Amino acid sequence: MEEVKLTIDGMQVTAEKHMTVLEAALSNGIYIPNLCYHPDLEPVGICRLCMVEINGKRLDVACKTPVEHGMTIRTETPEVNKIRKIACELLLINHPAECVTCSANQKCELQKIAHYIGVDEERINRLRKHVKTLPVDTSNPYFIYDPNKCVLCGICIRTCDEIVGVNNFDFAYRGYDEVVSTFGNKLMIDSRCVSCGECVVRCPVSALNIKETLPPAREVKTICPYCGVGCGIILGVRGEKVVASRGDTDNPVNRGRLCVKGRFGFEFINHPDRLTTPLIKKNGTFEEATWDEALSLIAQKFTRYKGDAFAALSSAKCTNEENYVFQKFIRAVMQTNTVDHCARLCHAPTVAGLVQSLGSGAMTNSIGEIKNARCIFAIGTNTTSAHPVLAYEVKKAVRNGAKLIVANPREIDLCEFAHIFLQQTPGTDVALLMGMMRVIIEENVHDIDFITKRTQGFEDLERSLKDYPIDRVEALTGVPRDLIVEAAVTYATYKPGMLLYAMGITQHTHGTDNVLATSNIALLTGNVGKPSSGVNPLRGQNNVQGACDLGALPNVYPGYQRVNVPAIKNKFETAWKCSLPADVGLTHTEIFDAILDGKIKVLYEMGENPALSEANAGHAIKALQALDFFVVQDIFLTETAQYADVVLPGASFAEKDGTFTNTERRVQRVRKVIEPVGNCKPDWQIVCDIAKKMGNPGFEFTLPSEIMEEITSLTPSYGGISYERIDREGIQWPCPSDTHQGTPMLHTEFFATASGKGNFIPLTYKPSFELPDEDYPYILTTERSLYHFHTSTMTRKGGLEVLRDREFVEINPADAEKLGLKDGEMVKVVSRRGEVMAQTKVTDVSPKGVISMTFHFRESPTNMVTSDAVDPVAKIPETKVCAVRIEKC
Ligand code: SF4
Ligand code: SF4
Ligand code: SF4
Predict the structure, then answer these.
(1) Is beta strand 535-537 parallel, antiparallel or unpaired with respect to 602-606?
(2) Which protein residues touch ligand 3 with a CB less than 6 Å away?
(3) Do residues 421 and 844 make contact, with C-beta atoms less than 8 angstroms apart?
(4) What residues pair up with 58 in beta bridges, in sequence order?
(5) Tens digit of pLDDT for each residue in 743-790?
(6) Which phi-psi region, left, alpha or beta, contains residue 684 (left: φ > 0; alpha: ψ -120 to 50)?
C-alpha cells in the first residue's frame, strides 16, 4: 500500500494514498467533526462540518479531499470554526431539543458535534422559530422514522442505494421543507423497503431508530442461523434472553451488514413454544418425560433395529460437530450408511456434478471476490431473497462496472440491475447453456490457451454442441436468439466472469446435467481458478456445506471419503474402534420409498421437517405414519414431529458452541450465547447420550472442541482447523495443516480431479419429467421469500411473520384474466399428487404459463403438489417444475 506523509495541526502523519483528509485524520486519532460521512459510503460533503484549511490557502471539506504528499492541514482556524458553527447551528435550530429523553442520547453524533464545537444555547433558542412537527412513521415492525429528528445527512439514502441496492429513499422538497422520503412518500411498510435495518444502524441521530430496544447487558459473537452466506452477528443478551442482533463488522463475510432475517429474526430463541423437555407419545398423545425415560426407550428400540431397517436424517441447521457425531453414531452404532440430510433436496447435483468436472463439489471462489468481477452470470438464483447479503455484493459489482447476466424463468428483483435478462422456460437450462457454448465457439471467444493447458474432453463437448443450433435453442428455451448471443459473448469476453447458481439449477430431474453445463461454460471461457471467477453454487441453509463436509451423506464419510473404498473404511474402523457397514446407504428420497416398502422400520431425524419440505409431501407423510418407531430431535414441535413416537428437545444455535461452514467453505465459530432453554440439550450431547445408553464407546465427548479435534484427525480438508485458529476469523477449506492459511480460491494450478485437469462433459438436453398438458396446463415452480426460511419453523416464530404471513400463488396477469381470477382470490392448485389452497398474487414477475409458490406455510403446504421424480444421479426431486391446474375455490 503506497503511503503519503502530510501534516495535520502541526503533527506529521502517514496515510494510505487512496485516503481522504478526513480518513487520514481519523485513522491517526485526530477528530474532525463530521455528520454525513460514513466509512462504508461514498463521501458527499453536504454537512460542511468537516471543513478544514488546506495548505494555508483554501478551505474545503475534509471528507472529499484526497490526501497528497506534503499537504498541510489545519482543523482549527477562526474561519473554519465560524463555518462549522453556522452549519451546526442551522442543524440545531431545526432539531428537537429533548436530548435527555431521546433514545440516541449519549450516542448521537449531532450532540457530540454540538458539544465539540461549543454552541451558544441562548442563541440557538432565539434562532429556533418553530420545530417541525411532521408525522412519525411507525409502520415498519422493527424501526421508526421520525423526520423531525432528521439532520438531512443523506446517510440513509446512500446506504439504501450503495449498500443494499433498494433505493427506497431520496430527498424530497427544498429549503426548510426538505425531508428524506420514500418514493411516492409512502409509509415505510408500503414502500420498497426490505427491512434490512442497514440505514437504521447508520443514522447518526435517532431519526431512524430501532423500536423497543432493551440495551443488552452483554454481547456474544456468533454466526447467523439462516442462510448459507454465514454472516457474522453479535447477539445482545439481557438476563436469560436474546434481545438484540447486530452485524459483526470484523467478520470478513458480511463486514457488519445483515438482511432482515439476521437482524430481526431472533425471537424464536426465547419463544414460548420452544420444546423444553422430552416427549413420549402414549395412546396418540404426547406426554412429558424425563431424559432417562426417553433415552431408555430409544436405546431399547434402536438396539432392535440396527442395520438395514434403520434410517437417519441429519440437519443442515446443526453444527459441524453435531453432524459428525450424528453420522458416526449411525455408522458405528446403528451399522448402516443410510444417513442423509436436506442437501439431497437442494445441492446434491452440485456435489455429484462438480466433483465429476472440477474435482470438488463446492463454491470455487469467495464472496469477497464478487465485487471485482467484470461479469456476473446469475443463473437459477433469486439472490436478493435467498442470499441477501451476497446480493449486496452482486449489486456492488454492477456499481463497479460489471456486466450482470440474469437467467431465470421469473423476472426476479435482480433483473432490475441486469444488463441482459434471459427468461428461459423452466427446465431448459441445459439447452440454454449448450446454445451459449456453441455461440462462444462460433464467435471464437473461447479461451483456447486455458482449454489446452487446463482441461480435457473439449472435442467431445464440441461434438455434442452440434445439436444446439441457435434456432433450436431459441425454440426450446423461449429466449430470443440475439439475447443468447449477447449473453454468451459478454460472459466470454468480460473477464473475469463469476457464475453464481442456486436451486433453479439443481432442483430438476436433470439437475446434475445443469450443474455440469455451468462448469462446462466456465471451463470453456477460462473462468475458473482465477480471482473473481469460478462456478459458485450458493448453498441454502446455514450449515448445509458443513453437513455435507462432515459426512451426513449415505456414500461418504467426513471429507467426502467414500464408504465403499476398503482402505478408507479401514481407516475409520481403526479410528472409531468398530466394524463399519460396507454398502452405500439410501438417499433422503429413497428412504421414504423404503419405509413404504416395509424395508425401513425406524427413522431418527434431527432438525428437519420433511412433512413440509419433502417433494410430494403426502407420500412422505404416509411413510412417517408407517414407521414402527420414529424419533425427532428439534427445537419446536414441527409438522414432522407430530408423527414421532419420541421428541427430544434440542438447543438452538444460540445455546451451544461449535462451527458452521458457509457457502464459500469458511469454517466459522458458533458460540454459546445463553444456556439451553428449559431442559433441552445441544444435539451433539443428545446423540452421545443415546450412544452411551446403548453401551457404545467413542462418544465420551464433553465439549464440541473435542469433537472438532477428532474431525480434524480424520478429515484432510479440515486438518488445520482448530477453535483457536478460527476464533477471530473463519478459515476456508481445504486447510490441511496447522500452518496452512486456508483456500479462498480453488483450482488455481490444477483441478482436484484424477488427471488434475478440468473435465468437459458432453450433455444432452432432457425435458422436465412432468410437462403441462390439457389436464394440468400450468407449470408450478417453487421459490423462497426474503422474509422466511425453509419451512418457517424459526422465521414465523422469529418475528418475521408480520412481514409475510401467507402463501401466494404468483400468476401472470394474462393467465389470471384467462381464468377469471382477481388479485387476492383463494384458488386451489391441483397436481397429479395432491392439491393446495392459497391466495393469488397477480404479477408480471411470473411469465405466462408459469405459477410460483414458496413452501414456507403449513396452511398451504405447496409440497403436497410438487413432483418427486428424481435426478437419476443425485436423486434430487424436481421441485422446480411440475404440471398443475388452477381451480377457483
Ligand atoms: S434519517 Fe438519519 S440517516 Fe437519514 S438523512 Fe436523516 S439523519 Fe441522516
Ligand atoms: S431498512 Fe434497508 S431497505 Fe429499508 S430503507 Fe433502510 S436500507 Fe433501505
Ligand atoms: S444473508 Fe443469510 S446469513 Fe446473512 S444475515 Fe441474511 S440470512 Fe443471515
Answers:
(1) unpaired
(2) 224, 226-227, 229-231, 254, 258-259, 261-262, 387-389
(3) no
(4) 54
(5) 999 999 999 999 999 999 999 999 999 999 999 999 999 999 888 888
(6) alpha
State the distance between the two ends of the chain, measured CA to CA, in whole angstroms: 66
Alpha-carbon separation of residue 514 from 372, 427, 677, 765 (angstroms): 26, 9, 44, 9
Mean pLDDT for all residues in the chain: 94
Q: Which helix (H) or strand (E) holds 649?
A: strand 646-649
Give the DSSP letter string of 271-294: -TTS--S-EEEETTEEEE--HHHH
Please answer whether residues 511 and 430 qualify as being in contact, where contact means their C-beta atoms are separated by less than 8 angstroms: no
Residue nearest to atom 6 of ligand 1 (CA): 150
Question: DSSP letter at 436?
Answer: H
pLDDT band at 94 (very low <50, low <70, confident <90, very high): confident
- Average pLDDT for 677-684: 96
In the structure, which protein residues have their CB atom closer than 6 angstroms to any atom of ligand 1?
150-156, 180, 203-205, 207-208
Residue 405: CB atoms within 10 Å: 25
The percentage of residues in the chain with a pLDDT greater than 70, rounded to a whole number, is: 100
In single-letter form, the type of residue at position 61 comes to V
Enter the C-alpha cell of residue 45: 460533503
Cα separation, 62 vs 688, in Å, equals 60
* pTM passes above 0.85: yes
Element (H, E) at 403: strand 403-407
Long-range contacts at 562-571 (CB < 8 A, ≥ 24 apart): 563/331, 563/337, 571/714
User: Rounded distance, CA 425 to CA 435, Å?
Assistant: 14
Rounded to whole angstroms, the Cα distance separating 856 from 836 reads: 13
Cα Rg, the chain, nearest whole Å: 29
- Here the cell at position 386 is 435467498
pLDDT score, position 129: 66
For residue 157, the ligand 1 atom closest to its alpha carbon is 4
**Judging by DSSP bridges, how do beta strands 241-247 and 535-537 pair with one another?**
unpaired
CA of 678 to the centre of ligand 3 (A): 27
CA-proximal residue: ligand 1, atom 3 (nearest): 203
